[in-house]
Amino acid sequence: MIYNLAMRRRLFLTLSSTGALLVYTLDGQPTVQSQPGEQKIPLKFFTEEQALTVAAATSRIFPSDASGPGANEAGVTLYIDRQLAGPYGRDRYRFTQAPFEPGTPTQGYQGAANPREIYREGLKLLTGLPKLSPEEQDSRLRAIETTPFFQLLRQHTLEGMFCDPMHGGNRDLIGWQLIGFPGPYMSWSNDIEKHHGEPFRPRPQSLTQILNRKITPWEELEP
User: Do residues 52 and 44 make contact, with C-beta atoms less than 8 angstroms apart?
Assistant: First the structure.
């Protein structure tokens, strides 16, 4: 299937903008400080219907709960959209010539279809998912959880939750705040003595914030 690039740029996904900051109390209970709003973001690969289906599915794989925001708040759908639109989506870096053997579990996926093709076919199995109740959505997802599509979707959900925000996911550093990851700091030498013997949980920073310059993600380096 051939997609028109100009047409695809006119497709948008409207996301709730949380501006979320997780604040942890001494007993480990999180509260969320946010500034609600909406943000329209252009899609690079998905249609609007596909994006809404992926958003519904990933929100059940990594839902919002008492511990904090989930996949929708973190922008996981946009992470997946960006990856599929780039070289990864077309298997730029995977050997894809026959024969295609099942392989062992440790070898991972060995099939002929690239990630874009897996998603296009897999999303057909989830038609109408956004209109279902959470319980019905879970049932639909359980029915396909052994398929390569679901396994890839689950992997991408986790990647989108905890990637550097430059890749489209982990909006407002939500994922890193959840697990207490401070970001890719190069050295902690200035903090060791300063906080010696006391709890130290700095607010996370992305690579762009740490280096104080724009970083172009690898998926945008190639057409």
Answer: no
Work out the end-to-end distance of the chain between its first and last CA atoms, rounded to an integer number of angstroms. Answer: 18
**Furthest-apart CA atoms within the chain: distance in Å:** 60
Contact predicate 73/64, CB 8 Å: yes
Give the global pTM: 0.82
> Domains in the chain: how many in total?
1
pLDDT single digits (tens) 123-164: 999 999 999 999 999 999 999 999 999 999 999 999 999 999
pLDDT digits (tens, 9 = 90+) for 191-205: 888 888 888 888 899
Contact by Cβ (8 Å): 62, 76: yes
CB 96 within 8 A of CB 88: no
**Strand, coil or helix: 21:** strand
Domain of 32 in residue numbering reads as 5-220
